[in-house]
Amino acid sequence: MNYQNSASNAMPTANIAVNKSRLKVYSEAGSMPVYYLKKGQEFQIELFNPTSDTIMAKIQLNSKSISQGGLVLRPGERVFLDRYLDVAKKFMFDTYEVSANNEEVKKAIENNGDFKVEFFRERPKVYSNPNWILTNSTFVSGGAHTLTGSLGNYTTGTDPQFLRGTSTGGFVPNAGTPVDTNSFNSSSVNCSYSSDIGSDSLGFAGLDIEAPTPDRRKRLKTSKSPKTMETGKVEEGSKSDQSFNYVSKEFEYLAFCVVEYKLLPVSQKVNTTQDVNARRYCTQCGRKQGPTDNFCAGCGRKQ
């Protein structure tokens, strides 16, 4: 769920990687993109800033912020973050078993594996207006600004912002309300997905048509719904050698880009033919076939 923006039509990205190699993300229309991780697997968060702005990334794991601060990315910078910002511990995905088909349990684990990164642009520096001193017909502060006319017509630029004439022909700063320089217009592109991702009930086939005995009914009831399921959340792993430099910068209050994923155990992954490296053999001569072979290279039989 990455978004495009800005003059270069590029938006910052966030992905999961292991040993600086990006993992495959699984995405279906209308569902949150998913990464599948193994129990005890340590990983990195790959962050990339293709914009011309300095930005800050704030990270949430299991629906909780990992720090009150964020990670600053300069224009064109790519980093592989392997640790929490406040603790020198690596990101690790840990799994455990919970009771299945229990609504209270589902509610308790619904935030497990939630991964979210919000990106904020740097706020431009704001310089407050200095105090001005009236000397004859000139204001002196950081350079002279000439005023002309008996009523004090303001003929130059932006300093000061408020002027009014006096009955004696002098000029004083007007006691008006200054411009709120802390007010910014920000656009928010906040896309989120929501989905309930869980294990489907297991089915069965090939049963007799005879009436089930009490023992058989018990076995069928057990086979229809598993008693437990595996869930996983991000925890602290081994010690990290990464370190940070602290910078004093201000960023906008509204995120201009949001990336969200779900981290799930591999046991919840539904494999497709593309995921399984299945071996194919000719049904006539038994020769091993390539994944794209339409005819057997040994006997010529169509596969």
Outline the fold blueprint.
Blueprint lengths: L12 E6 L2 E2 L11 E4 L3 E8 L6 E7 L2 E2 L5 E3 L4 E4 L7 E11 L3 H6 L5 E8 L11 E3 L2 E3 L3 E5 L4 E2 L8 E3 L5 E3 L40 H11 L3 E12 L17 E9 L14 E2 L6 E2 L14
Parallel strand pairs: 3-18
Antiparallel strand pairs: 1-2, 1-4, 4-8, 4-9, 5-6, 5-7, 5-10, 9-17, 10-18, 11-12, 12-13, 13-14, 15-16, 19-20
Describe this structure in words.
The chain has helices at residues 103-108, 214-224, and strands at residues 13-18, 21-22, 34-37, 41-48, 55-61, 64-65, 71-73, 78-81, 89-99, 114-121, 133-135, 138-140, 144-148, 153-154, 163-165, 171-173, 228-239, 257-265, 280-281, 288-289. It folds into three domains: 13-125 and 186-205 and 228-268, no CATH class; 133-173, no CATH class; 274-303, no CATH class. The chain has 303 residues and is mostly beta strands. The strands form five sheets. Strands 1, 2, 4, 8, 9 and 17 form a six-stranded antiparallel sheet that branches. Strands 3, 5, 6, 7, 10 and 18 form a six-stranded mixed sheet that branches. The protein starts with 12 loop residues before the first strand and ends in a 14-residue tail after the last strand. It is extended and about 100 Å long.
